[in-house]
Structures are given as C-alpha cells and as structure tokens.
C-alpha cells in the first residue's frame, strides 16, 4: 500500500551535482503495510519504531539524544539542514537515532555557528538519512494509527522494505538504558554554551539512563557539582557518595521494563532530594507505586503547553517521550503538579514527604524554550536546604 510517493522525482531535482551518485531510491515501510517512497544516503536497512518530532529546529540535538535509540525519527518541518552542525550542540558522544527522514534536505548550511552539514554528520555516523519523503502524509498516518515499527530501505522494490518492516520491533517491554549509560562514576564540569560555570554549591548525582549533555550543563549553571552514575549502581553505593541530591535522567525504552532502576529509586526515597526527568519521572512514579502506559504517538516537539497546578501558569516545553504516568494510579501521598494542556496527561508529580519531584517534559530544552530552567534552580535549592539540615 503506497501511501506517500516521493516529493522529488530524482536527486537532480535538488541540484545535487556529483553528490547524486551517493543517493539511492528508498522506501519507508511500516509494520501495518503502509509504504512511503523517497531517497536515502547511507547504509540501510534501518529498523526501529517510527516517531515524528514537530520542532522546527534542533535536529543535531535530537539525533544525538540517547532517548531516540531504537527509533527512526521523522521531522515535520519541511526544510532541514540549513543550520548545519557544530561541536557545541552534541547531546552525547554519538548519534543514537536509527535513521532520519525529512522532506526537503538543505545541503549547504547558512548559519554562523555551522562547522559542518547534516549530510556529513549522517555519513560519519553511518546513520541513513532519508529525504524527499512526503512527511505530511507519513505524520498523518502515524497520528491515525500510532507510532509503528518500520524499516527504511534503499531499494527499487517496495516489497523488500515491507518484508523487513515485519521484522522491526517497537519499544514495548524493552529496557534500552544499558546501551546508553556511562560505564562508571565520572564527573562533569562543562557549563552551557557561552555561560560560565556557577560555583558548586551542592554535590548532585545524575543516574545516567541516557542523559542529555544539556541536563548536565544546566545543573552546572544552577550551581551544582555534577557526578554521573551508571544505571546499575546500587542504592548503598549512591548513599556512600555523600550526595546532596540525585537526578534520575531521561532515556530510551519502556519504563515498566527498567525494574532494577525502579528498585534502586525505591530504596533512596526519603534519603535525599530526588528529581526525575522524562524517563526518570516515569521510573520515580513506578517507585512511588504508580503505573505507566504508552501514548498513541508520543510527545516529541518543542511547543507543548503545560499547566502548573499550584499557580495556573502555562509553560511552553520541550518533550520527547512515548510513555506517560497514569495519574489515577498514584498513591495519596503523591500529587500531580503539572498537566499537559493538549491531552491532559501527567507532566509533573510531587511527593513532598519524600522530597521527590518528577517532570515529564525536558526542562533543559536543547532544543526548545527555556521556561523549564527554573526546575534546575529549584532542585539545587532543595538540595542546598537538605544539605544544610543534615
């Protein structure tokens, strides 16, 4: 079932010149039988869960976000590549997305910060870059049927892509954090771009489940000394580090499958201030006795409105998650602190008696609006108060 045909008849339509030799005809097939056609550069096939992001900027940050492990990323913005790439906007040490699919690929960047282009990044990372796809038709299909496993394949025959799509798997039941965590306890001292590091007022650990560099940078900017911790660290080992607080980071996969980390968080509840971000928020909810569920097509973008229940404020936030916390499952000692104004899903929780807080959105942005930065300053304040009371 060919749902979306290529928006370009051939690479020459984009005036690729000699670069056209590296381009192949390609198909993106979904597990429900839908097929979309375009072109691709790079080694295929790429298999994974196909998700879309509505942000108009920040493709380098998205590609290097470990939360995208096991996923083929589709961008809704039509023109991609104009800002190029640079060494300051990496969110980790490598590209984690299984593949990238766009409509119109801009070869030459037009940005004073650019030191490279998107095509070269894809090539050096050996990640297939699909272009010329009817991303509007693709996104409408995903909104109707939900995020689906799929395969991006360089081929002249769509049946090959359809066959491979049947072998692709989603993220349900998958603990993907082992592949993206740091191997041992290690420090972090890099502040945000063009900002000086604040004085380390408190010592904060970050349980690394695929943490973005921007989270670490924002903690530095808020006044924390930061220590990254591997996912398999025990609660006893965390307690021995003498931390003033612990951040449970973002990451890929199904939170219900990360049972070992849930057990560690359960043992740390009430022993030091906790902050869960994205996957960390979901794991904190599980440790508190709640449940999680999968969203139809996830929240991936930079303009999601969130209401702060205590004040009525509305924050515009950056988001990247496929799962959410079931608010009705939370025990009486846990309050929903923020809700998504698009679908009413839980965006924040607070367990005041246990000095624990979680936010579903990404307060560090990268990319996105900066309204969530206060989450880090508030957390450092909680850590400072707790440390002074010991």
Descriptive report:
The protein is α/β, with parallel strands linked by helices and 390 residues long. A hairpin with a 5-residue loop joins strand 18 and strand 19. The longest helix has 16 residues. The mean pLDDT is 94.
Average pLDDT number: 94
Query: Helix and strand succession?
Result: EEEEHEEEEHEHEHEEHEHEHEHEEEEEH
Approximately how much helix is present in the residues? Answer: 10-25%
Shape, please?
Answer: globular
**Alpha-carbon distance between the termini?**
64 Å
Radius of gyration over all CA atoms, rounded = 21 Å
Strand order of the largest sheet: 11-13-12-14-15-20-19-18-16-17
Low-confidence stretches: none
| Proportion in β-strands | 25-35%
Largest sheet: 10 strands, mixed
Query: Helix count?
Result: 9
Q: Layout of helices and strands, plus pairs?
A:
Layout lengths: L1 E3 L18 E8 L4 E7 L4 E8 L5 H5 L7 E5 L3 E2 L18 E3 L2 E2 L12 H8 L3 E3 L3 H11 L2 E7 L3 H8 L20 E3 L13 E6 L5 H10 L1 E6 L5 H6 L4 E4 L10 H10 L5 E4 L1 H9 L3 E18 L5 E13 L8 E6 L5 E6 L4 E4 L14 H16 L1
Parallel strand pairs: 1-3, 4-5, 5-7, 6-8, 7-9, 12-13, 12-14, 14-15, 15-20
Antiparallel strand pairs: 2-3, 2-10, 3-9, 4-10, 11-13, 16-17, 16-18, 18-19, 19-20
């Amino acid at each position: 079932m060919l749902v979306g045909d290529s928006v370009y008849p051939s690479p020459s339509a984009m005036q690729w010149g000699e670069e056209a030799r590296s381009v192949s005809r390609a198909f993106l097939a979904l597990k429900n039988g839908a097929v979309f056609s375009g072109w691709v550069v790079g080694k295929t096939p790429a298999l994974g869960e196909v998700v879309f992001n509505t942000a108009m900027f920040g493709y380098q940050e998205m590609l290097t976000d470990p939360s995208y492990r096991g996923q083929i990323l589709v961008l809704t913005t039509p023109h991609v590549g104009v800002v190029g790439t640079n060494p300051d906007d990496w969110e980790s040490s490598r590209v984690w997305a299984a593949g990238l699919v766009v409509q119109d690929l801009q070869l030459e960047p037009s940005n004073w910060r650019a030191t490279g282009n998107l095509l070269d990044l894809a090539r050096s990372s050996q990640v297939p870059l699909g272009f010329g796809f009817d991303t509007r038709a693709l996104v409408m299909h995903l909104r109707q049927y939900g995020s689906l496993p799929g395969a991006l394949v360089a081929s002249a025959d769509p049946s090959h892509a359809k066959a491979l799509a049947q072998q692709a798997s989603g993220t349900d039941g998958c603990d993907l954090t082992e592949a993206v965590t740091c191997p041992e306890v290690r420090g972090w001292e890099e502040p945000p771009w063009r900002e000086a590091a604040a004085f380390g007022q408190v010592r904060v650990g970050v349980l690394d489940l695929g943490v973005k560099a921007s989270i670490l940078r924002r903690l530095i900017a808020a006044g924390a000394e930061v220590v990254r911790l591997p996912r398999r660290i025990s609660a006893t080992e965390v307690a021995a580090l003498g931390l003033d607080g612990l951040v449970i980071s973002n990451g890929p996969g199904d939170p219900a499958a990360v049972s070992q980390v849930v057990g560690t968080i359960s043992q740390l509840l009430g022993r030091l201030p906790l902050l869960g971000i994205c996957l960390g928020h979901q794991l904190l909810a599980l440790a508190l006795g709640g449940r999680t569920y999968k969203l139809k097509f996830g929240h991936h973008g930079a303009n999601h409105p969130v209401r702060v229940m205590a004040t009525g404020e509305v924050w515009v936030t950056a988001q990247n998650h496929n799962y959410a916390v079931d608010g009705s499952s939370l025990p009486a000692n846990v309050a929903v602190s923020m809700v998504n104004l698009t679908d009413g899903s839980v965006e924040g929780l607070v367990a005041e008696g246990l000095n624990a807080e979680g936010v579903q959105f990404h307060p560090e942005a990268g990319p996105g609006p900066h309204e969530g930065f206060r989450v880090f300053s508030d957390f450092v304040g909680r850590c400072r108060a707790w440390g002074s009371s010991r």
